[in-house]
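U., I forgot to send this yesterday:
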Amino acid sequence: MILLKNEFEIDCIRKSSIIGAKVLLEIEKYIEVGIETGALNTIMEDIIKKHNAIPAFKGYKGFPCSSCISINEEVIHGIPSKKKIKENDIVSIDIGIFLN
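Result:
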């Protein structure tokens, strides 16, 4: 089954994607050795809300955070916490955004 989106829905997806790109570009300057992944999550949530949007992950099936942050061998859905980024860590960030 193929679900077609109307123009309003497509526009919302486009705008949400633009906000998502802005969040990821903005958070890049905060990623440094010693910062906690939970702090990065808070910053991203604040940026999303500043754009009058809602973090899509927060509360989804009980997920406690606004983003997924995985470090090194964590495959996906890393839960932000007090875990600190270390030198040479590979940091993967995933976000979702609801708009309108």
